[in-house]
Amino acid sequence: MISKKEIEHIANLSKLKFNKDEIEGFAEKFSEIINYVEKLQEVDTKGVETTYQVNPNTQFMREDNVLESFSNEEALSNAPDKQYGYFKLPKILD
Amino acid sequence: MAYKTIIGLEIHSELMTNSKIFCNCTTEFGGDINTHCCPVCLGLPGALPVINKKVVEYGIRAGIAFHSDIARETKMDRKNYFYPDLVKGYQISQDNIPLCSGGFIEVEKEDGPKEIRIRRIHIEEDTGKSVHSEDGGSLLDYNRSGVPLIEIVTEPDMNSPEEVKEFLEKLKATLEYIEVSDVKMEEGSLRCDVNINVVEEETGVKTSITELKNLNSFKAVVKALEYEEKRHIELLKEGKENLKETRRWDEVNNETIVMRVKEGAADYRYFPEPDLVKIEIEEEWIESIRKNLPELPHDKKERFMKEYDIPEYDAGVLTQSKYLAAFYEETVKYSDDPKQVSNWIMGDVLRRINDEEIEIKDLKFTSKDLGELLKLIEDGKISNNIGKKVLRDMFDTGKSPSTIVKEKGLIQISDEGALKEIVEKVIKNNEQSIMDYKNGKNRALGFLVGQVMKETRGKANPQLANKLILEIIDEK
């Protein structure tokens, strides 16, 4: 079971706000999903190493070369707000 | 009551690669705002990271230098948190399979060496930098976003601020030696977070851990730790409980200030980075990195003892930093007396460097200049004392020793004829000293040599003056 408190915690980590009904709804749906995958817990995995990748490939590593970057204008071309060449954001309170 | 301080460190060090960890943008420090950026390091949708081989290599180098186990298979993970300096809402880092595990750094203690254990070394990307705008907004520069870092985590094995300083100096010197980072705390290429608490040894009562941030020099680390050590002991004495919190060092008021109280463990929801697959590290690659590793401080120290026949203490001091060691080796080339070179560098040169809080790289004169100065002394052209004066001038003006000697007329008087005249004059004015000497007071001879040195403003060759005085007295 996923509690309302856990939902609030997850929402908080994602910087999202929900009303009471929504939180209750999520708690229910999250619980359903968790219960569904809970089935996997029945498999005996003793002595089996954690699988973190099913793809058999290994990572290609590139050489340490510098290529051209964006100009300042290009870098900022999608920015909703900018100032002195910086991306501008509302004040951060944390 | 006896108290034991427990300190562990987390060190971030920027790697000196040419390009960033997951894209080809330059890692160069500074540069115009937001001009070292591309879709990858700006976190634009659809951009894919490709790992820089050099970053993995430098991480392995550090692991070898610190005696860690190098993973033969490792992976990158997503560390999720929201902060504007983090473009993607996650940092690509390493969680449960770090590149290097275990290891240690040895620090010298009065009662012998002590091993400070390293828990892990992993690779990750740096964040951007934010500044505050005058109208209350936040301004972001992402030039640093994606610059490669290694994070080195120690076990809580340090028990005093002094030990931490020793550890950091060793760590810094080694990272410099193996040429993976330029470790400048002022420029932020070396950053250090500290965890400290204190335990009352008899009862086992502990304070909660305090994390210290914003420490931008070794001095700040030591001062902040001294402050915290006292604060924690005070808490134990008063039987007060403290909360687990993060504090920062306030350099102006010399105190630590609470930044935030930590409620529970941070929840970063790590998971394997889906945009990168596992990294395989071949044994041969590790071996070739090991073989090509630049000489480490310990090996250099042993070599100095053998090659230059200098005492262990000297070799230890001279190999503290790569730059100092190089300076010594360069200087020795111009001198016939390696021990003499060591004496000068450990004495007058290092004293001045420490007093002025500069580094060997900042000197106005070169190792060749110092070598030339020592040669002038070895050849008897100037006395030791004049040599010290010339060195002071070299520190101030950066002029070559021969120029200073010439300009100030400091060449030692080694000409018998010229010196004899002065000696005769001194003897004439100090009849009493001659009597004293003849009556067995040997000190009188020293006084007379001193007078000759005074007459010549230190330029007389003291051995010659000594000899001439004795000759003249004998004649009398």
TrEMBL record, chain A:
SUPFAM superfamilies: Glu-tRNAGln amidotransferase C subunit. One of its GO terms (molecular function) is ATP binding. It catalyses: L-glutamyl-tRNA(Gln) + L-glutamine + ATP + H2O = L-glutaminyl-tRNA(Gln) + L-glutamate + ADP + phosphate + H(+); L-aspartyl-tRNA(Asn) + L-glutamine + ATP + H2O = L-asparaginyl-tRNA(Asn) + L-glutamate + ADP + phosphate + 2 H(+). InterPro entries: Asp/Glu-ADT_sf_sub_c, GatC. Keywords: ATP-binding, Ligase, Nucleotide-binding, Protein biosynthesis. NCBIfam families: gatC (TIGR00135). PANTHER family: GLUTAMYL-TRNA(GLN) AMIDOTRANSFERASE SUBUNIT C, MITOCHONDRIAL. This is Aspartyl/glutamyl-tRNA(Asn/Gln) amidotransferase subunit C.
